[in-house]
């Protein structure tokens, strides 16, 4: 710590590495609260994890973006060790008594949901809003005419898919670039001393 402070200053601190997962179909209408440590301890107990295995958790989307009838949501959780994260990836996981699915929180291209570009997030965007379905600047998202042809902001007016499509060539190209930069993106598990954790997903 003294060596770190001498190079970076007295205010410098070391942040422990976390191993992040996305849990899908987590009940969101019951008592479960990801900001409550008791709820996280319950997940640890119900799934045979050691105390402190889950450092934090948060809903993937803002609460005000949920449908009134929505009963499940996706949860982002941070584990303290690769072993705990891999345990959740391999076993049948329960939250509030319901089976949920888990996968690694992979690095994906960041797309601004205001201007639909891959260069920034909405919070820092100063561009004019572009509708995600038809890439139009002439009307807001909620005023898009029914059956309006889809166009992608990145691919131009000749495209026939919306900006949010995961089949968008621009999105796929950026994913490949990230996969090349971060090889762990292609690995279903977090690498440990166990050889099976070094497996890679099919291309």
Compute the number of helices. Answer: 4
Largest sheet: 5 strands, antiparallel
Order of helices and strands: HEHEEHEEH
Shape: globular
As a percent range, the share of helical residues equals 10-25%
Distance between the termini: 42 Å
- The overall pLDDT average reads 85
Return the CATH class of the largest domain.
Alpha Beta
Our estimate of the beta-strand percent is 15-25%
Structural class: alpha+beta
Domain module tally: 2
- CATH architectural designation of the largest domain: 2-Layer Sandwich
Notes on the structure:
With 203 residues, this protein is an alpha+beta fold. It folds into 2 domains: 2-104, RRM (RNA recognition motif) domain (Alpha-Beta Plaits, 2-Layer Sandwich); 108-181, no CATH class. The protein has 4 helices and 5 strands; from the N terminus they run H-E-H-E-E-H-E-E-H. The chain has helices at residues 2-8, 37-46, 82-90, 169-181, and strands at 19-27, 54-59, 72-79, 93-95, 98-104. Strand 4 (93-95) and strand 5 form a beta hairpin.
């Amino acid at each position: 710590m003294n060596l770190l402070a001498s190079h970076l200053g007295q205010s410098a601190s070391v942040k422990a590495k976390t191993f992040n997962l996305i849990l899908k179909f987590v009940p969101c209408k019951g008592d479960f609260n990801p900001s409550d440590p008791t709820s996280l301890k319950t997940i640890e107990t119900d799934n045979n994890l050691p105390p402190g295995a889950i450092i934090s958790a948060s809903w993937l989307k803002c609460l005000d973006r949920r449908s009134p009838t929505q009963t499940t949501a996706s949860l982002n959780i941070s584990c303290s060790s690769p072993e705990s994260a891999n345990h959740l990836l391999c076993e049948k996981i329960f939250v509030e008594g319901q089976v949920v699915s888990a996968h690694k929180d992979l690095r994906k291209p960041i797309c601004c949901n205001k201007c639909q570009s891959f260069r920034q997030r909405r919070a820092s965007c100063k561009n004019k809003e572009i509708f995600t379905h038809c890439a139009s600047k002439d009307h807001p998202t909620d005023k898009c005419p029914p059956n309006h042809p889809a166009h992608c902001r990145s691919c131009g007016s000749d495209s026939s898919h919306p900006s949010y499509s995961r089949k968008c060539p621009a999105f796929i190209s950026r994913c490949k670039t990230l996969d090349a930069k971060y090889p762990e993106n292609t690995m279903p598990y977090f690498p440990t001393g166990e050889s099976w954790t070094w497996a890679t997903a099919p291309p």
